């Protein structure tokens, strides 16, 4: 069965080059170590065309191996780790895509985006799905944990 883990509507307002940027990260860095073992995927969907000027995704050309996936304690430590490892292995690439394009993203993919320097909004919708509900120790779900109708085991 498949479950909706989370969803985000990502809006980058016009002329927000600093305020609308996302620093280098992996979506899995926000999960507990045991939750990272549950298969999951994000689908980043461009509502508007995404360009280097309006804050498109930048992704690492090389995804770290499982032995290189860590949970640093600070954002600066995390950024330094991935700049040394993933980006040093092959650099990064801008994913400039048209409206309606979809990008499937592993939770371990190092990615970032710059701010929007244009006079137009840049919007995207990003649902995330997991192979099973991701639960805290107290039994409460992390995120939505909504089963997709029609899914079978």
Molecular structure report:
It contains one helix and nine strands. It is mostly beta strands. The chain is globular. The strands form two sheets. The protein has a five-stranded antiparallel sheet with strand order 6-3-8-1-9, with no helix packed on it. A four-stranded antiparallel sheet has the order 2-7-4-5.
Q: What structural keywords apply?
A:
globular, 7% helix, five-stranded antiparallel beta sheet, 153 residues, mainly beta
Low-confidence stretches: none
Morphology: globular
Kindly report how far apart the N and C termini lie: 5 Å
Number of helices: 1
Give the strand order of the largest sheet, numbering strands 1, 2, ... along the chain. Answer: 6-3-8-1-9
Largest sheet: 5 strands, antiparallel
The radius of gyration over CA amounts to 16 Å
Mean pLDDT: 85
The string of secondary-structure elements, in order, is EEEEHEEEEE
Strand content: 25-35%
Question: How do the strands and helices of this protein lay out in sequence?
Answer:
Blueprint: E1 3-12, E2 22-25, E3 40-46, E4 57-60, H1 75-84, E5 92-95, E6 102-105, E7 111-113, E8 122-130, E9 146-147
Antiparallel strand pairs: 1-8, 1-9, 2-7, 3-6, 3-8, 4-5, 4-7
Concise synopsis of the structure shown:
The chain contains 1 helix and 9 strands; from the N terminus they run ββββαβββββ. By secondary structure, the protein is mostly beta strands.
């Amino acid at each position: 069965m498949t479950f909706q883990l989370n969803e985000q509507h990502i809006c980058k307002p016009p002329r927000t080059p600093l305020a609308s940027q996302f620093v280098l990260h992996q979506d899995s860095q926000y999960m507990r170590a045991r939750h990272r073992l549950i298969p999951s995927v994000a689908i980043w969907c461009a509502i508007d065309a995404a360009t280097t000027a309006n804050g498109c995704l930048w992704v690492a050309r090389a995804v770290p191996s499982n032995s290189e996936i860590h949970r640093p304690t600070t954002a600066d430590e995390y950024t330094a780790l991935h700049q040394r490892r993933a980006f040093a292995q092959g650099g990064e690439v801008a994913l400039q895509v048209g409206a309606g394009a979809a990008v499937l993203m592993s939770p371990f993919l190092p990615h970032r985006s710059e701010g929007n320097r244009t006079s137009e909004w840049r919007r995207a919708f990003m649902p995330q799905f997991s192979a099973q509900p991701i639960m805290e120790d107290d039994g409460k779900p992390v995120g939505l944990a909504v089963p997709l109708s029609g899914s079978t085991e």
